[in-house]
Design brief:
about 250 residues; alpha/beta; Rossmann fold; eight-stranded mixed sheet; 9 helices; about 25% strand; globular
Length: about 250
Amino acid sequence: MSASRMPHDARIIAQFTRWAKPFAELAIHAEAESMAQTLAACAVARDMKVLDVACGPGIVACELACSGAQVTGIDLTPAMIEQARQRADRMGVTVAYHTGDALHLPFQADSFDRVVTRYSFHHMQEPGKVLAEMVRVCRPGGRVIVIDATPTPECQEGYDRAETLRDPSHTSALTLAQLLSLGTEVELSPVMMHQYRLEACLQDQVAPEDWSALKAMFAEDIAGGQDRLGMGAWEGADGIRFYFPISIVAW
């Protein structure tokens, strides 16, 4: 691990150790429609070998295991892996979980029929290298799937500013064009693309010390009426609500 990466990895582990249980329990992460779209993109069949990279609390991995696939999950944060194992136990499914680094996947080349990651690339300092690792461990003719927030180019800077305040382990959310370009660089061919918006409440998963500044940022964006953050924020009955702009790309 390079010295430059160590502080960022420490930020990821600190953030997701702190939020492991609330993150695992937050309904938005298992929302039915977006999960159905994720499963459709993965197109998993029984006995396929599937890898979930940066699997977090195992939400996608466990759903894939319900299809009868042989699922492996890997995540940098031990507390997330513990949540993932508890989830698998509750659901009565088998998933092989590992603590490890997405930049150096501990698997042989051509090991999996499907390699997926969801809501993780915006934490990666080198997403292109992570994608290359996902390709390395995917068998020829298999499928690599990336699902993540993709702001529009004109809103990317504002989106990143808001998300970094909410989550210090955020690096940058790629635009859809940037994400597709990463696939082109490793000679992947898209087989499907889909975009959706995931509604969220601003107060969910915000540290108390960051709440005032984040609320002020969103309130200013709402008052300005120009959606500079690219999240379509509005004042709801339960506080500020907004959308994550999500893209699914399967190669």
